[in-house]
Every structure is written in structure tokens, then in C-alpha cells.
Amino acid sequence: MTIKVGIADTTFAMVDMASVAIKTLNNMTDKIKIIRYTVPGMKDLPVACKKLIEEEGCEITMALGMPGKMDKDKVCAHEASQGLMMAQLMTNKHIIEVFVHEDEAKDGKELDWLAKRRAEEHAENVYYMLFNQKYLQKRAGQGLRQGFEDVGSALK
Amino acid sequence: MTIKVGIADTTFAMVDMASVAIKTLNNMTDKIKIIRYTVPGMKDLPVACKKLIEEEGCEITMALGMPGKMDKDKVCAHEASQGLMMAQLMTNKHIIEVFVHEDEAKDGKELDWLAKRRAEEHAENVYYMLFNQKYLQKRAGQGLRQGFEDVGSALK
Amino acid sequence: MTIKVGIADTTFAMVDMASVAIKTLNNMTDKIKIIRYTVPGMKDLPVACKKLIEEEGCEITMALGMPGKMDKDKVCAHEASQGLMMAQLMTNKHIIEVFVHEDEAKDGKELDWLAKRRAEEHAENVYYMLFNQKYLQKRAGQGLRQGFEDVGSALK
Amino acid sequence: MTIKVGIADTTFAMVDMASVAIKTLNNMTDKIKIIRYTVPGMKDLPVACKKLIEEEGCEITMALGMPGKMDKDKVCAHEASQGLMMAQLMTNKHIIEVFVHEDEAKDGKELDWLAKRRAEEHAENVYYMLFNQKYLQKRAGQGLRQGFEDVGSALK
Amino acid sequence: MTIKVGIADTTFAMVDMASVAIKTLNNMTDKIKIIRYTVPGMKDLPVACKKLIEEEGCEITMALGMPGKMDKDKVCAHEASQGLMMAQLMTNKHIIEVFVHEDEAKDGKELDWLAKRRAEEHAENVYYMLFNQKYLQKRAGQGLRQGFEDVGSALK
Fold first, then answer.
1. Which residues of D touch C90 (CB under 8 A)?
2. Looking at the partner chain, which of E93, E136, E154 has a beta carbon nearest the beta carbon of D14?
3. 3-state DSSP call for residue E116?
4. CATH number at residue B62
5. Which residues of D touch E (CB under 8 A)?
6. 8 A C-beta contact, residue D10 and residue D76
7. Would the CB atoms of E85 and D86 count as touching at under 8 Å?
8. Size of interface A-B (CB pairs under 8 A)
9. Which domain holds residue B54?
């Protein structure tokens, strides 16, 4: 029986992260069915994810967004994150937030690389959460990061 | 069968965005019925939208507001946004937030243009969300904006 | 049949706004019955309003508060506003927030005037929300303010 | 029939405010039964209060906490306050928040005095909320404070 | 009959706090059964804890996380804390938040020490909350801290 995985993304983002996440997941397993749902902006993601969970039956969902550089954008990202948090608590399902802030990268090229790499590594996390929780437990407290390099453990 | 679309707006805003949104939607389709609900301020919008959804049967709602320039106004906008987020999660219906900050424009004339253009482009989004989700998916990750120009993709 | 209107206020505020709101409403209509509930501070207002709605049957409620000047007070006001937002969403009833920040006025005399004028104008809004929503709709987007002067429309 | 009053406090605080609140309440009335619940920190107070209300049957609850001086502590206090707000809205019962910020006082001696005085005055508020709401209404808008001196009305 | 205790931790953290918490609890009592659940990041903790409570039957849960140094990380920690607060209120169960901010320590070695010590002391709190609430009550208002030294009472 296949498990449904939701992928919610936006037209606001400057990189198509969803395609990378979908490809990564499909390369790792054929036990899932992916349902994609594109909305205009970041603040439309929480209810989109909740609908993927409650109306489409997704077991886990990824929320892919790209906050802009302005203060206003940071507030939007915060509101979207609070909504994703609440959506998880209302459904008892994980929503993996994959937000890439425009100002994390020094230029468009790095932004494209970062967004795709982070989407890929979080898609791997989704796989482990569904099929191999022991793998995550073995890596607990090891300073793992998605996108840029891992920082490692405090005593490294 | 017509689909009900809610439009909530305020007497606080300095531009009548609702009329533009209503005109845009009516020009795009005759399969919807629009229900308008005007309240005093931005913070009255969340429950107004929830009432449009739950008491009037709206499938999707637009929340049109215009935060002022002061710090106090920014906090109000944040609270209103949190309320709109929560209203969506409680109803599993989208509420498209169309907020135009007074200080986004350099003068009254630009503010009027910006508010109307953003309302128009978000009304188009409402149309696509209801009738053509594939259109949005094809434009995922393309850096679309409502009001000012699109920023385009990171690799443009 | 009379409609019940709730008025929640505080001993913390430096002006008795409730009496003004009650007088304004009673002058406009005899179709309402007002229930007043005084609590110590601003953060006691949300549950007070929810009790007025759910235990006393109020159709709409006014929450009258006066945040102090300190940073701490601003945070309290934000928390109270979030609570009022949530109370509305849990009950599908409007709560009109009438907060007057102590530092909006240059001295005690202006503060007294501002608080009473804002309470009066918001009481009028309550009347229109209950009995004449068309009046509000006709004034949508006109830059109305409560207390200080209206700012008018962007193209004025 | 006795009314149950909950008192939640912390081992984090530097003053035993609960004993003062309990003594004050017991001196004012013998119609209540107090249930005390001590938790480690401020952020444990909201669910503690909710349990006092829902599992112990308390009609009203006091939440006694003492945020530290650091930015991190201010954020904790904000989160705890938001939780107390939500707990009230979920139960339709008042929770009187008695927070004393460590940096409100100039030294340990004043902090001890302030915390005890504020706990005492808020315990009096609890009494009036339970048994004499008219007393609070008569003092509406009079600029009352708990701990430091009342500021009085704007026109004083 | 054993009581189930949940331990939720992350691969993001730079120290394995969960092992310390588990060891501490097992040394104090054999009346509990610990269920560990490792997720990628801090913002995955709230729903993880809620699942431990509602799906695994945990009576109390520890949420172990380590916010990074950047502003963005502080916002994440705030969102995670709000989620943990809400999860507690939705379940009426305590979740003991054990967050160690990377910038609380001067270097990796101190960070490792601090994280382990705080996890240990909070595990002790979990024990007292489950089996000896009187012990906590006796220590109310004594300025206890987890990790660094206790600050003591205001009048010390």
C-alpha cells in the first residue's frame, strides 16, 4: 500500500524546489504517492498542507517557501511558520518546513543551489521519518544541517 | 452551480480595493457569486472572513486591508495576519490576504495604483485557485509578485 | 427582541471609556441591552469578552483598554489583541477592540479626550455593524479613523 | 459550598509569592479552598493552570512567575503569557497573571517587596472577581496598578 | 504499572542531550518506560511530543533542542516554544522544554557541558513532577536554574 506525501509550494519562490523534492523522494522509494499543490505565497501554505493531510490523506507533507529580504517578508515567514506549527498540532501529522531566505545566499546562482540542496536533504528526512526512524535517532545531536554544510557536534 | 466567493474589506483602508477585486473576478467568470462584507479595521477581518465561510458558505475569501505607517499599525497587521491564518486552519478554506502597507508607496497616487493592481492580481489568483490549479503549478518557483513587478527566477 | 451588547473594560485604564460607549449606543438605539463587565487589566479582557458572548449571549462586544508607555506594556497589548482575535474566531462573533495607547496623547487632558472620542466612534461602528452594514460598505476604503481625524482616501 | 481557587507558581522565581497570595485570600474569605501547584518554570504555568481548572475544578487561578533580565527571558515570558491567554479561552475561566520582571526592581530587597505586594493586590482582585464585581466596576478607568502605586485617572 | 515518559530530540542539536536525560531518569526510578523520538529540527518537536502523548500514551514529555546563533534561529526557537505551549494545552500534559541556545556557552566544550547538565536537571524535574510534587513546592520561589548555578532567593 502506498503512503501519500504532500508537497506544497508557491509561485512567489524564485526556485522550483518542489521538482527536486519529488525527484529525490521518487528515487529513494516507490512506496509513496506524491500529491503536489501550488499556491501563490508562503502564507497560503499552512491551509494548503492541512488540506493535503485532511482532504487528500497525506501522511506527511513538505512546505516549500522562499521568504524575501524585507522586514515585511520576515514577518510573513514567521506567520507562515506559526500556521504550519498549528496545522501539525491540529492533525498530528508532520509538516516539514523548507524555507530558504533570499538573503541566505550571496547571489541568484547560490540561491538556486541552496534551495535545491535544502529541498533534497529535507526530502531525505521525510523518507527517514516515514521508513527509518532509527537512522535519525543514530544521528541525534550531531549538528546536521540542510543546505549548507553540517556543523557537527559541539566537541568535534 | 455557482461558487460563493467572499470579499472582506475595511473603512480604514485609503483605497476601495474591493470594487477592483469584484470587477476582476466578474470579468473572468460567471460561475461565482460574490458576497462583500465591510468592517471598520484590519483586525475585524479574520472573524469577518470566518463568518463569510461558515455562515455564508464561501469557498474562498479575500481579506483586503491597508496597514498604516506607525509601529503600532505594523503590530496590528501582524495580529490580523495571525487571525487570518488561524481562520483558514479552522475552516480548511483559503483566505487570500491582500494587505498593502501605506509605506510601500511613495505617495497617495502610487498607493492607489498599487492597492488596485495588487487586488486585481490576487483576484486572478483566486480564479486560478478555484478553476485552474494547473496554471499555478506551471508557474511555481518563478518569483511572481502581486502589485509591483515579478522578480522572476533566481537564475534569470 | 433586544440584542445583547457586551462592554468589557478595566480598572487599569486611566479613563472611563465604557460609560461613553454605553451612552453613545443607548442614544442611537433602544433595540439593545448592554452588559458591562469590568476586569483588572487588558489581558483579562479576552476571556471576559468570550464569557460575555458565550455565557451572557452577547451578539457583539467592545473591549476597552489602555496600554501603558513601557515596552512591557506594548507586549501586554499585543498579547491581549491576540487573545481578542482568538476569542472572535472561537465564537464567530465580533469583538471591537478599542485600545488607546497612553503615549498617543501629549498629556492627560488629550488622553482623556482621545479615549472618550475613540470609544464613541467605535460604539457608532458597533451600531452600524448590527443594524446598518450598508453604511459601512458605502464608506469602504475612505481612510476612516476613530479618535483622531480621518485620513481620507489615497487620492484625496 | 466552597469555591476552588488555583495557585500555580515556580521554583524559578526568586520570591515565594504564592504564600502571600494564599494568606491574603484566606484572610478575606473562608468561602474558598485553595489548591497550589508548583512547577519548575514560567512556561510550565499555562498547562498547570489548565489542569487546575479542568482536573481540579478551580473557578479561577493565579499564575505567579518572575521573568529574568535577559532578552531570552522576555521571550519566555511572552510565550508563557500567550499560553495563559489560550488556556483561559479554552476553559472560559480567568487566570490572573502575576508576573514580576526581575528588572522592575532596583535590588533584591525591592524585588522581594514588589513581588509580595503585587501578589497581594492581585489576590484581592481575585476576591473581587469572585464575590464583588460591582467593586471593580466602580473603579473602572481609575488607573489602578498592582505592586507600585496607582497612576490614577488621566484628569487627576 | 509503569508510566510512559516521552523524549523528543533533534539531529540539528550539537549535543546528544537525550541520552543524558534517559540515563538520569532511569537512575532515579524503575517505574517509568521511556519512548524516544528523534526528528530533524526544533520545529518538528511540538507535533512529535503531541504524538508521543496521544499516540504512545506518554504522561509527560521532554523536548530537547538547541537553537543556533542567528536571528533566524531565535525566531525558530520562539515558534517551536509556541508550538510546545499549544501542544500542552491541547493535551493537558506537561512538556518540559529543554532548549540550550548555542550562544549561551563560550565554546564547544562549555556548550557540551551546559546541554548535558541542563538535560540532567530537567530530567530530575520530570521525576519530581511525576512522583514528588511536594519537593517542588518546598523549593518554590528559590531562584532555581537548570544548567548554570541557581540564583537563589531575592533576599539571599
1. 89
2. E154
3. helix
4. 3.40.50.960
5. 9-18, 36-40, 43-44, 46-48, 50-51, 54-55, 72, 75-76, 79-80, 82-83, 86-87, 90, 108-109, 111-112, 115
6. no
7. yes
8. 103
9. 3-138
Contact E122, E62 (CB under 8 A): yes
Total structural domains in chain D?
Answer: 1
Name the residue among B129, B144, B137, B55 with its Cα closest to residue A51. Answer: B129
Residue-wise DSSP of B1-31 = -PEEEEEEEESSSSS-HHHHHHHHHHHH-SS
Residue B145 lies in a domain: no
Work out the number of other CB atoms within 10 angstroms of the CB of residue D23.
Answer: 15
pLDDT in tens, B73-130: 999 999 999 999 999 999 999 999 999 999 999 999 999 999 999 999 999 999 999 9
Dihedral of alpha carbons D60, C35, B43, C102, sign: negative
Query: Sheet holding E60-65: strands in order across?
Result: E32-39, E3-10, E60-65, E95-99
In a domain, C152, yes or no: no
C-alpha cell at E87: 501542544
On whether residue A81 sits in a domain, the answer given is: yes
- Taking only the tens place, the pLDDT of each residue in A93-120 is 999 999 999 999 999 999 999 999 999 9
C76, C67 Cβ separation under 8 angstroms: yes
Q: Taking CA B51 as the corner, what is the angle to CA B45 and CA B52, rounded to the nearest 5 degrees?
A: 85
Give the amino acid at A75: V
Interface test with B, best of A39, A70, A73 (most B CBs within 10 A): A39
Q: Domain for residue B154, yes or no?
A: no
